[in-house]
Amino acid sequence: MSASRSAMKKEPVARSTMELAPFVWEGTDKRGVKMKGEQLAKNANLLKAELRRQGISPKIVKPKSKPLFGQTGKAVSPKDIAFFSRQMATMMKSGVPIVSSLEIIGGGHKNPRMKKMVDTIRTDIEGGSSLHESISRHPVQFDELYRNLVRAGEGAGVLETVLDTVANYKENIEALKGKIKKALFYPSMVIAVALIVSSILLIFVVPQFEEVFTSFGAELPAFTQMIVNLSRFMVSWWWLIAIVIGGAIVGFIMAYKRSPRMQHGMDRLILKVPVIGQIMHNSSIARFARTTAVTFKAGVPLVEALGIVAGATGNKVYEEAVLRMRDDVSVGYPVNMAMKQVNIFPHMVVQMTAIGEEAGALDTMLFKVAEYFEQEVNNAVDALSSLLEPMIMVFIGVVVGGMVIGMYLPIFKLGAVVG
Known about the structure:
Keywords: Cell inner membrane, Cell membrane, Membrane, Transmembrane, Transmembrane helix, Transport. This is Type II secretory pathway protein. InterPro entries: GspF/PilC, T2SS_GspF/T4SS_PilC_CS, T2SS_GspF_dom, T2SS_GspF_sf. Pfam families: T2SSF. By secondary structure, the protein is mainly alpha-helical. It has three domains: 19-61; 76-172, Type II secretion system (T2SS), domain F (Receptor-associated Protein, Up-down Bundle); 184-418, Type II secretion system (T2SS), domain F (Receptor-associated Protein). It has 16 helices and three strands. The chain has a three-stranded antiparallel β-sheet, with helices on one face. Helix 8 (159-216) runs antiparallel to helix 9. The N and C termini lie far apart (112 Å).
């Protein structure tokens, strides 16, 4: 009898998992106020009954129309996962059950992909899965580090504390990534705009000047002739230039993704670039320290933690160094000794790690290391922005201004002859 009851309990959950579909509805509440919304349900009649139970008189209940070109909405970003972690931590600390927390979070998301993922996780948990098992079905959005931390939190019965730690970690890492992107994005965009403006001048503006110069019948200055020749080349072969540049970019990206040797070489090269290289060094150290501290604090064994941390450093050179550290720690070396052997971490980091190990507070000391190097990244990015602004202005002045001067040189020369 008990076996049949358990089967009866499980069967509706399995069916609901298969048959839940999104519906949109419109209706009025008891005061006659118009309301509308969107909700998952097995069918329209069950949704109408649920709305009536909530005191809403449904007027329209219909399946949500599917988008014309597949699923709408942005891909789930790391910022979405950071926000999800913060919401889960806050609600679970407030005593809200995990299923209710997921229902509230899913209902509040405007991104359909994120909403669908959260609803799927909630349905899996209602079906008997743990949170770790549920998010493991979404490995792209929840990386190995996230999954291991959640598993450790569930095993120790401190899931809400671990989620709070994960939320802090994700927020700090995303803030750090934002600083790095800011350092690289601004100059890249300005240079790209300068090149686009120069191309427009060469293709559309310079030919007009060339017609005027031809009517003069005079010999052009060497600098102006060079610009005219470049313009002729651009007008004739712009399509080939676009194909070559586009193909080179696509080829580079594909080769970079598929070749670990190329990734290692590029990451090593970036670390040697003046100013930018130091920012990337500090960023990788900050990410290593914070990630190791979070995993160790959550109760993940140190050797396993280092294996997870390696991929979170954001740089292949540091990733290989951390994997070598893991191998040394697995045979009995202290972390600070293994760190010293790879010869990539600053002396201060090695010493603080040694102090943390001796005091039995490795996670606390690594958190301090992370905070220090994150601040170093912030300061370096601000200094870089101040340094780049005048350099970028000079670059734009030389490229665009030089082209304009080159076009007006014959006019100046003609004016001098007439005068």
